[in-house]
């Protein structure tokens, strides 16, 4: 049985934990639709290898396109809309940093395995208390994960802003150069 199928069979308290770490960085819809394919990829290795991460990101988008084609035949307008939006967000967010998507997916899969292991542990007296404290540390890890994702997003936005500023500077330079050339040629024609 796939890891995702096991996750879906968990009790509600564990499902709530799973829900906490799926967000816009990696929406649960994609995890659900591409469960088997996602689990068959080596996201851990890709998180340290840009070439592999780029290939996996492209393949993820291809898989998403295939799902979009399948859903389009079913004429499920809401799902079609959501998948198109998610694809656009994923492509825009991770195009310049494909290793980040590998890190995000790898973390999600690792958290799922941890929750599955916790769900399969027999709960007895003192162990119950340790699970509660692990739940607090789990929340802290989730918050830290989200903070790291936000920092990464800010960094990517800053890089994009810098790139756009450089483009604007280049445009201004070329525009002024062309204006100067046009005004000198106009002066030469009048002389």
UniProtKB/TrEMBL annotation:
GO terms (BP aspect): cytokine-mediated signaling pathway
Keyword RNA-binding in annotation: no
GO molecular function: DNA-binding transcription factor activity
Cross-referenced PANTHER family: SIGNAL TRANSDUCER AND ACTIVATOR OF TRANSCRIPTION
Domain (STAT transcription factor protein interaction): residue spans on this chain: 2-122
Gene3D superfamilies xrefs: STAT transcription factor, all-alpha domain (1.20.1050.20), STAT transcription factor, N-terminal domain (1.10.532.10)
Domain of life of the source: Eukaryota
Entries under InterPro entries matching the protein: STAT, STAT_N_sf, STAT_TF_alpha, STAT_TF_CC, STAT_TF_prot_interaction
Pfam families, alphabetized: STAT_alpha (PF01017), STAT_int (PF02865)
Protein name: Signal transducer and activator of transcription 4
Keywords: SH2 domain
């Amino acid at each position: 049985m796939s890891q995702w199928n096991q996750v879906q069979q968990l009790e509600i308290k564990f499902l709530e934990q799973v829900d906490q770490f799926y967000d816009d960085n990696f929406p649960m819809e994609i995890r659900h639709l591409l469960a088997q394919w996602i689990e068959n990829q080596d996201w851990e290795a890709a998180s340290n290898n840009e070439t592999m991460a780029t290939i996996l990101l492209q393949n993820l988008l291809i898989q998403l396109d295939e799902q979009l084609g399948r859903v389009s035949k079913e004429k499920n307008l809401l799902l079609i809309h959501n998948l198109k939006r998610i694809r656009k967000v994923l492509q825009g967010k991770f195009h310049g940093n494909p290793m980040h998507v590998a890190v995000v997916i790898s973390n999600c899969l690792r958290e799922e395995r941890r929750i599955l292991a916790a769900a399969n542990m027999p709960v007895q007296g003192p162990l119950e208390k340790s699970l509660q404290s692990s739940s607090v540390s789990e929340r802290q890890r989730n918050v830290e994960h989200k903070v790291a994702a936000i920092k990464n997003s800010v960094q990517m936005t800053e890089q994009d802003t810098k790139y756009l500023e450089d483009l604007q500077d280049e445009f201004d330079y070329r525009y002024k150069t062309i204006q100067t050339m046009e005004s000198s040629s106009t002066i030469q024609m009048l002389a």
